[in-house]
Amino acid sequence: MVEKASISFERCCNELEAFQIGPLGDQKGREWSFISKGAITEIIITCDGYAVVSFDFKGVEEHGNVEYSDTFGRHYEEVYKIKLDFPEEYFTSLSGTYYRGAVAYYFSSLCFHTNRQKYGPYGYVVGTPFEFPMKGRVIVGFYGRVLTEEAWIHGTLGVYVKHSTDLLGPNSSQAQAVKPNTKVIRSIFNQEECIKVGPWGWSRSSTEEEWSYMLKGATKIKIGYNEESIKWISFESSGENGEVKHSQKSDISNERHEVISLNWPEEYLVSISMTLRDTIKDIESLCFYTNRTIYGPFGLTKSRNPFRFYMKGGIIVGFHGRVGDYFDALGVYIKPFPEVFSSSGQGQIENTEVKAGTFGGQGGKEWNYKQNGAITEIKICHGRVIHSLSFKSVDKNGKSTYSDRFGGEGGDTDLITIFWPREYLISISGTHHTHKKQHVVESLCFHTNKKKYGPFGGTQGSHFDIPLKDQDIVGFHGRASNYIDAIGVYQ
Question: For this UniProt entry, which residues form the secretion signal (predicted)?
Fold first, then answer.
């Protein structure tokens, strides 16, 4: 069974859809990529005693010309070769295991799946398993990172995929009923026309059943949880004609529940994240990310087993999973953005301000900092946790504005200087943890378009980040007392 899945996101590259697969962790090292003009026909994998350490790829384009990649990583003594007879056989999916080493995450084993069979595992099957099933897609390229110091494959691994109909023609055995650029909103509710990803979680129930639900118009999502884990989830949607659709009813006795209301098409889901309990491995907490904001986390976040699925250029249009005595697993159905919204602009979202977060505890007083300018300095005071934050902004006329100090006294001080306009804030990440019986922000990293600053503070708590893309951070908000209790951003 899959204990924990990996980060995943979708992005566009011409007509390609690219899904990145890799565990949570620092984005260290040097990026690499190889995209075939046709299809990948051969992969050479080398391993050492601990992990997969290098790749070589061979591709063939439509006229039969052969393409060879560089070597990504470093060669080692254990060498494996996969050779396919394209177009009869082609790569469709990827799975494996990973573990956290001294300086990064590593892939301890990998399996490569085709339309005919599975190749592998290559390496050593230890650590946390992941899988990324895709339907109706052909892998035409790979990308990831290598540690600059050691030249090892690590941390992230991604695939570029095309629709099977684009590469193999309409008679492909994996052909989809809807062509890639169909722009009829109703088509997004058909499971067979969507990409099914996951589910992620753990089978713990003595008896369990699979379930699925396709979103339809304006949607309410109800999440039931207690002090231990997520107990149930239910959906209610209303379509274009006003009809209301319900998912299966759930037993909501003795559980707290929250309701998310999404006003389709102005607001839609783009990501989910969760944590799994350390020992039992059922779902402990859930977050839902939309194009407008973040809902959650719902449930406690004590675990150090995080998972996140996020995309660029795609929309979550349904859910599926397993349920029994426990809420065991959750997955999603997704569609590329151009297949959801019509060319007339229905559902297109204006470039409005997004308020994301907060992450952390519930204590302290609310604080806000948002100016008509760019943030150019951040002063952060920290020890084991984040004690306080203050900011400086500069407007288009060069006028500087300074914030109050949010939080308490104490801690070591670091000053981040951002060289705007060449450099600007795009994201934050960190951990939150209980400190002296108070749940607070334990550590912070500030990400710009140029580099990452931090982490500042300890790093033992539950991880969080804000994965909204293609927007600048223009302000911060949260709660504070003698520490920074919680933090979020304006984008």
Answer: none
Q: Is the dihedral of CA 238, 243, 249, 253 positive or negative?
A: positive
- How long a stretch of residues is the chain? 491
- CA 288 to each of CA 268, 295, 458, 466: distance values in angstroms, whole numbers, following the listed order: 10, 5, 26, 11
- CA atoms of 139 and 119, how far apart (whole Å): 14
DSSP H/E element including 143: strand 137-146
Q: Give the residue among 487, 463, 484, 478 at the shortest CA–CA distance from 301.
A: 463
Residue-by-residue DSSP string for 78-135: EEEEEE--TTTS-EEEEEEEEEE-SSSEEEEEEEEEESS-EEEEEE---SEEEEE--S
Bridge partners (DSSP) listed for residue 236: 220, 246
The phi and psi torsions of 168 (rounded to 5 degrees) equal -110, -10
Q: How far apart are CA 432 and CA 430, in angstroms?
A: 7
pTM beyond cutoff 0.70: no
pLDDT of residue 173: 41
Phi-psi region of 60 (alpha: psi -120 to 50; beta: other; left: phi over 0): beta
Phi, psi of 465 (to 5 degrees): -155, 170
pLDDT confidence of residue 264: 82
**Which residues, in sequence order, are CB contacts of 183 under 8 Å at separation 6+?**
338, 339, 341, 342, 343
Q: Are 127 and 108 in contact (CB under 8 A)?
A: yes
Percentages (nearest 5) of helix, strand, coil residues in the chain: 5, 55, 40
Q: How confident is the model at residue 380 (pLDDT cuts 50, 70, 90)?
A: very high
